Amino acid sequence: MDLVSIRAQIVSDATGAISEIPILLTSEGPLLSLVDYLLWVQHDRSSAWMRKVVQDVKLLLTYMKANSSSLADPESLFHSFIQRLYTGTIGEDGLDPSGLYWKRYDHRAIGNILTRLTDFSNWVADRQGTAPLNPLRTASGYDAMVAIAASAARKNRAFLGHAWHVMSGRKSQYARSTLSRRSPKVSAADDAHAFPERYFEDLLFHGFSRRGGQSQDDPSKRINIRDVLITLLMHGAGFRLSECFHLWIYDVRPSPKNPTVAQVRIHHPSLGEAPDDLVDERGNSIKCNRGTYLASKYAIRPRNELLNRYHAGWKDPSLDANFYMEAHWFDEEFGRYFLRYWNLYLRQIVQIPRHHPYAFIVERGSSAGGMYCVDSYVEAHAKAVERIGLVPAKASGTTPHGHRHAYGRRLMRGGVDPLIRQRALHHKSLGSQAVYTTPNSADISKALNNAATTLDTLVAEGRHVKPIFDLEKLLAYGFADVDPDGLLSGPNPKLR
User: 147, 139 in Cβ contact below 8 A?
Assistant: First the structure.
């Protein structure tokens, strides 16, 4: 059975409206149950999520084919499938009779795969009367306690926690037949995930330089202003990279509070307010949202709904108003830089024909005027990082997302209240900002050094006693004294 995931355009009713979704092709045609499921849920699911579901189902079917003769009932097969994701399929002898040769999957990835496949299986079971792959069972006492604790944690984080439904208590009586393992708790991401502030100016003005442009007086010829603007949105206002690609030309203007600073509003891809330049048959202005505007004027869909290279994700952030996120510059100087370079950018692209309202475009070549792609910026950012002598790597904070981390860490170090940080980062949950704002190793080291200085003051005042170590005695304390049996020392140590 050959399995191939492709994009498909589907007409599901008499209106002629087209739905573009990923589907899974088998040797017998499309997997219709998966097509029906994705058509059912697509209104509130992202394209990236749908692609993951298709890959999950493909993974499961691949496993089923390799093990069709060894496992009978679907529930046992699904349970074994999840176990093999944890352990891999390669034996201690380096062989795998199934031919899969899977390595161990990441714990978090397995939990997400399990959730997506369970939801898909339950949907199919409800409509076709088949047995679900991962049914509910009566929870053990331990499972019930864990479920209650998890429910309480979700309630505390919820916006309307006081109105948490009473059914959550009843749900804790049950658990899924197959559960994911708990991953080790990581308290915080290290500072390595944040783009190093000391290199940021160098990145803007030397990293994004145009070839042969250093001798030019015109900034638009010296540096790539478009990429500088995208970088400023992430580093100075904390936007995610994909969110920057939903910006329209109409979304930037001088701030009413301070005309030297840019007011930037990134609207919801489909629900955001659209310009009023559409008119009806009577010449009256049509007020509509961005999804309608794009379809009516340009015959295209919002970028989060596209499945091609022009796709830009949307993680359903917390919005400041109906329906947009406003840039909260920190500090304000980033907003001043942005407005200056924005005005240069507009003069640079004014003569380039465009057939879309998006702000960031391809400036040269046969695709000039087309939508600028996320992957193209990621590649340009990597080259810019290399030009200033750094290595593009997530662990070093030198990928695009490192700028959002830098923004969050700047808020934390500036003493900004956590609730304000939540709004600035456009997080729905207060806990979501932890990865951006939790103290890192450098912050911890500085705090402990300060605390040690405080203790020294208390010792001098006679209010604290510190243990005293005699280094000479420690060095004189021979290793043989603590290893009388010669397990680690001596001429023939038994343990190495």
Answer: yes
Edge-to-edge strands, sheet with 4-11:
4-11, 18-26, 29-30
Structural domain count, the chain: 3
Kindly state whether residues 310 and 412 are assigned to the same domain: yes
Rounded Cα distance, 461 and 448, in Å: 20
Residues 178 and 98 in one domain: no
Q: What is the pLDDT along the chain (496 residues), one digit of tens a residue?
A: 578 999 998 888 888 888 889 999 988 889 999 999 999 998 888 888 999 999 999 999 999 888 877 766 788 888 899 999 988 998 888 899 989 999 988 888 899 999 999 999 999 888 888 888 888 765 555 445 445 555 555 555 544 444 445 444 555 566 666 777 766 655 554 555 899 999 999 999 999 998 765 656 677 788 999 999 999 999 999 999 999 999 999 999 999 999 999 999 999 999 999 998 888 888 888 899 999 999 999 999 999 989 899 999 999 899 998 899 999 999 899 999 999 999 999 999 999 999 999 999 999 999 999 999 999 999 999 999 999 999 999 989 999 999 999 999 999 888 888 889 999 999 988 777 666 666 666 666 677 777 778 878 887 888 877 666 565 555 555 555 556 666 666 667 666 5
Strands 252-254 and 262-267: antiparallel
Which helix (H) or strand (E) is 335 found in, with range?
Answer: helix 332-349
Peptide bond preceding 331 in cis form (omega within 30 of 0): yes
Residue 274 and residue 218 share a domain: yes
Kindly report the pTM of this predicted structure. Answer: 0.72
Domain that holds residue 122: 4-134
233: DSSP letter = H
User: How far are the Cα atoms of 186, 278, 408, 418, 437 from residue 415, in angstroms, in the given order?
Assistant: 23, 46, 11, 9, 11
DSSP secondary structure code for residue 296 in this structure: I
Asked if residue 179 and residue 306 are part of one domain, the reply reads: no
Question: What's the rounded Cα separation, in Å, for the pair 332 and 493?
Answer: 65
Distance CA 96, CA 90 (A): 5
Task: Check: CB of residue 320 under 8 Å from CB of residue 267.
Answer: no
State the Cα–Cα distance between residues 300 and 182, nearest whole angstrom: 43
CATH number, residue 421: 1.10.443.10
Taking every pair of Cα atoms in the chain, the longest distance, rounded to a whole number of angstroms, is 101
CA distance 291 to 301: 7
